[in-house]
Amino acid sequence: MRAIERLSPALIAQIAAGEVVERPASALKELVENSLDAGASELAVHLTEGGIRLIRVEDDGQGIPQDQLTLALTSHATSKIRDLDELEQVRSLGFRGEALASIASIADVRLLARTATADQAWAIRASGGQVDPPEPAARTRGCTITVEELYAHTPARRKFLKSAATEFGHCDEALRRLALARPDVGWKLHHNGRLVRHWAACSLPARISDVMGEAFAQEALPLEVAAGGLVLRGVVGRPAAAKLGRDAQYVYVNGRFVRDRILSHAIRQAYQDVLHHERQPVYVLFLELDPALVDVNVHPAKTEVRFRESGAVHRFVFLAVQRALAATSPGAGGIGLDAGAGSIGLDADADADADADAGAGAGAGAAAGNGLISGRPGAAGSTGTVGAARQPWPPRQSAWPLQQADTHYAVLFGASDRRPPESVQPLATEGESTALRAPAPWPGAAPAGTPVPAWSDPFASAAGLHDAGAADGPAGQRVAAVTDTAVLPPLGFALAQLHGIYILAQAASGLVIVDMHAAHERVVYERLKASFGEQGLPSQPLLIPRAMAVTALEAAAIEEFAEVFPSLGFELALMGPETAAIRAVPALIDEQASAHLVRELLRELRDFGASRVLTERRDALLAGFACHGAVRANRSLTVPEMNALLRDMERIERADQCNHGRPTWRAVSIADLDKLFMRGE
Amino acid sequence: MLLIKAQRDRLLAPLQSVIGIVERRHTLPILSNVLIETAGDRLDITATDLEVQVRTWTSVTESPMQDSVTLSARKLHDILRALPAGSDLAMEASENRLTVKASRSRFNLQTLPGRDFPQIALNPETGASFSLPQGVLRKLLERVQFAMAVQDIRFYLNGTLLSVANSTLTVVATDGHRLSFTQQTLPETTAQAEVIIPRKSVQELIKLLQPVDDPVQVTLHGNQVRFEFGSIDLITKVIDGKFPDYQRVIPTGHAKIVEVDRLLMQQALQRAAILSNEKIRGVRLLLTKDSLAVVCTNNEQEEAQEELEVAYNQEPLDIGFNIAYLLDVLNHLSSEQVACHFGDTNSSVLITVPGQEDFKYVVMPMRI
After folding, report:
1. Is a pLDDT exceeding 50 seen at residue A457?
2. Which of A266, A474, B197, B337 is the most exposed place for a label (fewest CB within 10 A)?
3. Is the pTM of this model over 0.90?
4. Chain A interface test: which of B243, B279, B296, B363 (most A C-beta within 10 Å)
């Protein structure tokens, strides 16, 4: 048996370094954080071979006096905190006094620094734990630290490093995280002698745009909410901008990048019913709160934090993000069509071909490019003959041609018999004026506080376009009227229904295509949610209580959150150490699932201090009702009905996505259409 | 080879009485078939879903040999129903085919061997046995069946309790929200026993039992119960579990008793229900001096109010319910009056038929 012995200080430092300096990117993070804590306003980072060979960080911070240089490389030496009180109030990024010592124990480090008052700069060199005395050197105020041959003294560790390109990627990501939090600092990153990143000091939105790319910035909703000592600012991406990975999720607590379960859960919940379940939201959020209310000393890399009142933080973040996202409707302030739900590129024509093919057999009629209205009856005419020749399998019921003939008729002679009565009057005077009636105010604009634009009468415009296309009349006047874009609401006015599935509408920027079912589903869902409100559901006490087995942790949560349950419609009682009885369940919730639901509720209460399980479950039910209550495909809608739906969409929140996170509408701009037809080329 | 000759009507009626338990979707194909057994001029038809089995017989014109075969219950039923009434038909069986011929129609159907049909073997152990008129048993089951649970994980609630002791038969069903209880005196005394009959068997019994005085013989065979009545022999497995102690749940001593006209109350509730929240179905009953008000509101803040004249002179009461639970009991009773026994706002309510001790319905209020 071997005797117990004290480890050598060098080995202790190397073991500690294993935790802090996992890879070059973590060393870089520590060095840059030191520079930021030293008050740097310009930072330059040089990397060679992804930081494995060399990391150099230059800053213009306060520097280090000559007599403290040696101490700076000693473990548990820091200027950032002095005692426990200061640790609890810590505002600097670092505080452990370990990073430099750890790095010095495993690499060759050269520290060059000059304070504002010093006559000259001093340099110090350390290699494998051996520190040489300081010697004079040349430099302006600030500090340069050079780390060479990281892991030179721990070859075992070095084997775990990935390729230089991968390590550079990690360094780059580490720098992005830091740079996002400090837009006031200018950043430069050189790799193998080439300047690869240059972010000048700027405002936060500009920095987000610089670091995350302009596309992200355009799809993002700004956010700034303060309440009860908590401040949340930053941007959240629109649901449509969601990605498959979690790589564009940045959360900062008091300027420190963290990966926190409570925060990411709260944000994810806020995206609850606007995000497709496989997608991850994108966001850059900064949470600020009293440092005394958060414990950052949880993990050596400080990416984990603990909140003293996690429930309150969870609720605050959830509400703030949810409110920001509620603005994702076509009419909401400032979100025009250009930045809207996205536009369709040139590949659209391929889809159109395929559609027409499937819709009406094959043949000459399926010249889908001919235009939306005339293409269909043409194709339908061929069903009888060509369809028979092709014999599709499985056998298909062929269509009764009468309805198509009717459509054809309507196209040729105007669907005046189908048009609602109120459109008759504008029709009689069309061409002279399109704004006969008093323009209705646009409800969606009211909350934004912008002046309400007036627009021309929807039916007159639609009718004008219709007739202009078919009858080749004096179209100029009418086209001018309908392209008078300043007066159109965001989603424009309905033109027609396509294959019983889509609504085509003319908006200021061009064509708007609305998925009728998805859009109506969202409208009905939001209406149901509003009518049920945020208050709890009625409670149904049980004649025969339902017993459920609980764990010790769950039992503790039942006691701790006893006062929460009645407000949620539940009544729980502990029957023994491992048994609880459900005495009442919220009405509307399926009682069968109540035990499962209670378990979920307890888990969330325990982990996050707050739970929206019940609201979510209710919303899921409402979403189901909404799906059944919404108009189905192939239900033909009249123009007034379609316009009513468009106006509803502008009015409600979260109208850009259906309940399952699919988009409800898309825009094809006139520019895109021009490209399709090579106009102006 | 001729299997049977018979009149269409002679076959259709017995087939109709067994087809109710044939499930539409199966992993075991033979369960969608009926078993047909012939002997002399007698034809036995059996259907099962492995939980419950119904067997019945009929006489046919001719069946020259003793044989058994199974074929699709639903297809045979649909064919017979579509043939003209009174038509004569013949069934001929070959290897794995059966041909139904009637005048100029012929149908060639697939069959599976009769010996493969999973008949329930009657448990030889016999327990309590009693008989009562068919119509009486049917009425008892009808009065409680609506309170059975549907696919509850507490499996013992997905059925109806039959309990015999001395010469009393007690029938109880509950889904954990409300409970329905009824009792009947039997002509003879019998051994004490309690069984839970599965939901599907109860519903099938209600369909098969006729409102007549002919007796139904009920015999317990361990984990099975056998009901024999008319030409029908129904064997059902019982649910192996302990039914909740229903005696404890039935409140006693509720002092606020209101008698109302059943039909008036039913109609008032039906009208008010139009404006109840369609998902939550809440209704408030407001008792004041000599008046019972029924109030429903929905999410759109629309309100329905119905007022019934009652004899009541105690302190006012405001209590909420799931309206479906109230309508259920009113729909399934046939008396002119019902009596509601209220406690306070949070305690369960007892509904009885005045002058009859044999029916009790308990329902929990809803906190609206």
Report:
1. no
2. A474
3. no
4. B279
